[in-house]
Design brief:
There is one protein chain. The protein has 246 residues and is of the alpha/beta class. The protein has a single domain, classed as 3-Layer(aba) Sandwich (Rossmann fold). The chain is 36% helix and 28% strand. The protein has 7 helices and 10 strands. It binds adenosine-5'-diphosphate and magnesium ion (MG). The site of magnesium ion has 3 residues, from helix 1. The site of adenosine-5'-diphosphate has 11 residues, from strand 2 and helix 1.
């Protein structure tokens, strides 16, 4: 393990029991992610992407194998420690945004800080407004989610993930519910924030277009890493694929 590694996954397996049969959603995954990297895990539906992300984010447990985040093995966490890990260290971005319809958007962002124990309302509002500005929603802080477009709602979710100053942000198909152009803007925004804030991003997607923004691409296929490409390699292959009209 390199001392710059922020996430190391070793021989990760997750088996789901289905009566008599078993599904290996993950069947021996190894990967390592450096602090500040923007990593894309690409794979078709059913490849195990969500299962992998849920385990890195601490909302599911492996059947076998280890996940080490900032030198701590999640397998060794107590329930309490796991709760603080989820609350403070991991920011989530989902396909369907998962923001609360009855709260103004700055309140949605502020809630993440309240969950962390912040009590000073003025401070919460200021931090929420600051981060909403960063994601391009200045002036819209008091709106409700229904008064925003899909892309804007995803920006709220990004702000909510980022405001916690998490160790890593995990995104599960963040462009999956957006049209192509809006999806590209969201991917670009995540990459910009990754560069500006230095936050590590792990993005899982079946959308090859998002890989343009990645430092490294892991290809996940039937619960296994099939191939790894770094940025330079990927740019070449991507251009080739686009030219060939894939
Ligand atoms: N809770 C579950 N119970 C049973 N099978 C599951 C469960 N979650 C996922 N699976 C199965 O594990 C495999 C991987 O699923 P998933 O991680 O959701 O893939 P992806 O996100 O890449 O589409 C699929 O075959 C899926 O049906
Ligand atoms: Mg999924």
């Amino acid at each position: 393990m390199d001392n710059k590694d922020i996430v190391v996954v070793k021989n990760l397996k997750r088996v789901f029991e289905f009566g008599e049969s078993q599904i290996y959603a993950l069947n021996g995954v190894d990967l390592s992610i450096k602090k500040g990297e923007f990593v894309v895990i690409l794979g078709p539906s059913g490849a195990g992407k969500t299962t992998l992300l849920n385990m890195i984010g601490g909302i599911d447990h492996p059947t076998e194998g280890d996940i080490i985040v900032a030198n701590e093995n999640l397998n060794e966490f107590s329930n309490n420690r796991m709760n603080t890990y989820r609350r403070n260290r991991v920011g989530w971005i989902f396909q369907f945004f998962n923001i609360i319809a009855s709260l103004r958007i700055w309140e949605n962002v502020g809630l993440a800080l309240e969950f962390q124990g912040m009590k000073n309302k003025k401070e919460i509002k200021k931090r929420s407004y600051d981060i909403l500005k960063k994601v391009g929603l200045e002036g819209k802080e008091k709106r409700f989610p229904s008064q925003l477009s899909g892309g804007e709602q995803q920006r709220v979710a990004i702000a909510r993930a980022l405001v916690k100053k998490p160790t890593l942000i995990v995104a599960d198909e963040p462009t999956g519910n957006l049209d192509y152009v809006t999806g590209q803007h969201i991917a670009e925004l995540m990459r910009k924030l990754n560069e500006e804030e230095g936050t590590t991003f792990i993005v899982v997607s079946h959308d090859i277009a998002i890989t343009q923004f990645a430092d490294r691409v892991y290809h996940l296929k039937m619960g296994k890493i099939d191939k790894v490409e770094d940025k330079d390699q990927f740019e070449l292959n991507f251009t080739k694929k686009v030219k060939e009209g894939e």
